Amino acid sequence: MAHYCDTVGIDLGTTRSCVAVWDGTQVHVIANESGDNTTPSWVCYPDLKQRRVGKAAERAGTKYASSVIYHSKRLIGCRYGEKVIQDAANLRWPFRVVDQVVTFLQGDGGAAIQITVAGQPKIVTPEEVGAGILSYLKKVAEEFIGRPVKKAVITVPAYFNDSQRQATRDAGRIAGLEVKRIINEPTAAALAFGVLDSHSMGTKNLLVDCCRVFDVVGERNVQVFDFGGGTLDVTIMQIEANSMNFLVSCRPRSPAPAHCLPCQVRATDGDTRLGGEDIDARLVDHFLDVFQKHTGVDLGNAKESDKKKKALAKLRAAAAQLKIDLSRMTESDICLDELYQDETLEAKMTRDEFESLVGDLLERVRLPVMRALEKVHGGMKAEDIDQVLLVGGSSRIPKVQQILQEMFPNKELCRRINPDEAIAVGAAMDGSHQYQMVDVVPRALGVATANHEDPSRQFTTIIIPACSPIPEGGLIVTSSFGTSRDNQTGADIEICEGEERYFDENTHLGEFELSGLPQRGRGEITINVTMSVDKDGILTVTGTAEGTDIKKDISVRANKGRMSEDTIRRLQTENEEYEKYNTRDP
Fold it and tell me: Where is the region Disordered (predicted)?
């Protein structure tokens, strides 16, 4: 009888999600009731008591077009007004994105979602939507394992910031899970690709000899290209074979299996505003124009009526399928009978037409690839990359693979493992206690410092550089600063994420004040600022004044307006109530 690990691995994706578990010898990707290894990241509220998740919610999307939510991962941990929120208007979501400040939640302007349930407006946070999906996957895993599941490793895009990671952890807690770790998706994928051994471990779909995957002899540089539904992540890994001298990023918690490939994250970059859903939205816009030219009906303003919302939902599903078809075929079509009233949409599209229509989006993958190479300490060139691992459904698009082949000529694009499942497999392996993945800080972390020439624009002083490795116990770095003027009695410590010279050009994370400083001359009081990044990539900042008892610290979470403990407990109760009435995939 299999002895399943008490911690499952979950890929909480923008468009689809996946759960896997380690049984002591291999990883199992767990199928849902429909027999599918991945589940649509959809949630629907048909009435005030019921919540549908997965394929059931996707199917309900046409009937309950005003009550369905998808792609919520794009909003999780984001403040209302951020660029990613503004982009939402271009994606033609059937729901509204609203400001948490004007809702029942206490926050600093976090994004929330407004839908209509039983004719009444309902406000839902992205964390609640994520919790619904996680609860569903938790139940799927429990039915497979045969006992309650209480622990999980959950993956996030490598370029997720601190607030997005905290919000993902909150979603897990609302779902009743103890989130053992938050790990980066490309790192999880690399673990799945790099450690699988046909003699000792595998999965039903992922059994591949690691030496055949990488053709590794000695040290290799591998780029993980993770192009999913909502984000693009590019991570450069250094993988070493035939060695028991493990690098910092892959330490065995028990003796390593044969052919184990230790791996170290060297650099990461990405685009949190580029994914398959952006391609779908471009296709939808195109076919809306086609429909309007042939019928005179404008479906673009779907908020006018439920009928238009339902028509748009059908078109969106057809456009997504067309994109998939054109990755396998050179021509496909859309035929939607009576899409709106008595009007039918019939249209064809070739792969060349598709590539012309979305070409500017696909070309955007080049910049993160080049930036990741530049971020490697000492620099790295394209010719230094030995292989490119393709992860995420959007990596299947032929034009994307063509671009990568142009950037890495004569290098192998590794397509031998299912890109939709590799991340969950890596998460399950991390949760198995066989391996510990130690990642890097994706973006530089710093503080504001005085600009005496132009006091209105503060400089950025980097404390933790981008791509700094995070050891098992966390990364702790301290920098010292002097007071900037005579008789200064307080110091404002402002924290940012980014590498721009001027502080206001970076992402502001939080701030706090050290007050009560003794009055001394400029520079005579030393302020020590310590930044601590834990294994989940979550930041805490501490400020102290030397020679005094003055000390203050801040978890960036508190300043970002994330959920209070009371709110989490209330949502846990609501989630449990929904589970009693939850309609699962038949």
Answer: 559-586
